[in-house]
Every structure is written in C-alpha cells, then in structure tokens.
Specification:
- By secondary structure, this protein is α/β, with parallel strands linked by helices.
- The protein folds into 3 domains: 102 residues, Glutaredoxin (3-Layer(aba) Sandwich); 46 residues, no CATH class; 85 residues, Serine Threonine Protein Phosphatase 5, Tetratricopeptide repeat (Alpha Horseshoe), CATH 1.25.40.10.
- The protein contains 13 helices and 5 strands.
- The protein has a 5-stranded mixed sheet with strand order 1-3-2-4-5, with helices on both faces.
- A hairpin with a 2-residue loop joins β4 and β5.
- The protein is globular and about 60 Å long.
- It starts with a strand and ends with a helix.
C-alpha cells in the first residue's frame, strides 16, 4: 500500500498502471465508511499477492488529486490501467463484491506449485492449552507467558489475559512484548467509558487538533484489533505533534507494530527473510515523522 500525493502520483499510479492494475482508494480521516473499507482493501492487496497495487489518496491533504478524479462522495475507489481510469465504485462494499470487481480486471492467479504436505497448525484452543501447560511447567518463561496473554486477548478473554499478564507488569521497561501487551490492555480499559466511534469521529471532524478524541478513537480501534486503522489515527497526531501527551501516540504506534509483527519465518539459505509490505509501509511512515 502506498500513500499518493502530487509529487509521486505520476510514478506510483500513472506509470505503475502500465505494468499492473492500480487501485486508488480516495478517502478522508473523518469518513467512517472509509475506515471500514480501508482494511478490507489492504487485506485484499495481500490476498491477491501482487496482482494489483493499492494506492491511497487522502482527499483532505490532496484536494487537487480529489478534484482530478471528480470526487463527490467518499470512499471512492478507482481502478487504473494503462494510465487511465477504467472502472470504480463508491461506498464501502462488502469484501465479496470487491473481489468480484477485482476479478474482472486483475490477472488470473498462476497455479501454485505443489508442495509437500505440512502438519496443520494447532487451532487457538489447542495452542492455548499447550501454552498453559508450558507455563505450569515453567512460570518464569516470559516469552511463553507473552504468547499466552496475546492469544487470550485475541480470543476476547480479557479477564484471563489480565491475570496471566500480572507477572509481566513489572518488566515493561525491558521487554517490548510486555510493553505492547500493556498498551493493548490499557486500550481495552479506556474504551469501557469512552464515547462511541461516531461521537469521536464527530469531535475530530470539528477539530483536527482534538488529539484526545483522536487518541481515544485509536484506542477503541486497537481494542477491536483494527490495527492499521488505529495506526492511521496515531499518525495523524504524530504529524501534528510528535511529543503529544508525553509521547503517548508514538508509544501506542510502536506497540501496535510489535503486536502485528509475526515471528520471522526461517528464510531459505542465501535468501533474505520475507517482509510484509504493510508492516514495512507503516514502519517507514513512523521513521519519516520521527526523523523530520
């Protein structure tokens, strides 16, 4: 996923569309349906494995590009091929309809080479039981405890996760995973009495510098495991005030990156490890802001 502006639009969209279909997502931070659609498009970009390129245009920051596309309502999605728009839709369509839209234009996936059968990974319930047994045998294994707490949180078992997390609470200064899990737990706690998403979006629409509302929205999104949407909100704070509220936005952003970074798979001999394009994109955005 790429963020387009007037400077890079020709290269990232027009030129690129001569090589591969480019899906342009025209959105705005205050637009609720945009926040629903964005993660679906990012998921599909990964699922389609390079058969199309996703480019996002923030219509608030790039009014000239919005005007060039004739934007009247958002979210608006335009498919570019051969340097020209060839199709599009408006609104947050369900994933199935977006797949049908894409399948009319993107190249057909090549058949995957047959690979040796692998043992299927354990389901969450089995994995939880395994981790619980490992902790019973070695309660001081912080890595196992962190994995156990994370899986409990992903399963929505907050109370169990808090109890299991207690031995890690004093180690947030030296353990990145423990610190990230604390941010997640804090977000879950904060959302209990926070305004709902609609009220927070309205507050942000009234004032882009209402950082408290934007941070509360990011916490709500984090609590719902809507990782990239949460980071988008935190980026909006960081772009305007890098050190707001004792660095709270940056700390939360770093925590999410930690939570969504999977264990590194073993790379083939002589090959660099594979990287996740979405993760790399969000890491670059943070670096650009912090170093600016």
């Amino acid at each position: 996923m790429i963020d387009a502006n007037l400077t890079n639009f020709e290269t990232e969209v027009v030129d690129a569309s001569h090589q591969i279909p480019v899906l342009v997502d025209l959105w705005a931070p205050w637009c609720g349906p945009c926040r629903v659609l964005g993660p679906v498009l990012e998921k599909l970009e990964t699922a389609y494995a390079g058969r199309f390129k996703l480019v996002k245009v923030n219509t608030e920051d790039e009014p000239d590009l919005a005007a060039a596309f004739g934007v009247r309502s958002i979210p608006m999605v335009v498919l570019m091929q051969g340097g020209q728009p060839v199709d599009g839709f408006v609104g947050a369509l369900p994933e199935g309809q977006i797949r049908q839209f894409l399948d009319k234009h993107v190249p057909t996936a090549e058949p995957a080479e047959e690979e040796p059968a692998e043992v299927a990974p354990a389901d969450d319930a089995t994995r939880l039981e395994q981790l619980q047994q490992q902790l019973a045998a070695n309660p001081a294994d912080d890595a196992t405890r962190g994995a156990y707490v994370e899986l409990l949180l992903r399963a929505g078992r907050e109370d169990d996760a808090r109890r299991a997390y207690e031995p890690l609470a004093g180690k947030v200064a030296i353990d990145r995973r423990a610190a990230a899990l604390q941010v997640w737990l804090d977000a879950l706690h904060a959302t209990r009495n926070a305004p709902d998403e609609g009220a927070l979006l309205a507050a942000i629409a009234a004032s882009k510098r209402d950082f408290a509302a934007r941070f509360a929205l990011a916490q709500r999104l984090l609590a719902a495991q809507r990782w990239t949407a949460a980071m988008d909100e935190l980026l909006e704070i960081l772009m305007r005030d890098k050190s707001w509220n004792d660095d709270a936005a940056r700390k939360a952003y770093v925590a999410i990156l930690e939570l969504i970074t999977p264990p590194a798979p073993k790379a083939a001999e002589g090959q660099p490890p594979a990287t996740d394009p979405t993760l790399e994109s969000y890491r670059r955005r943070l670096s650009m802001i912090v170093l600016s």
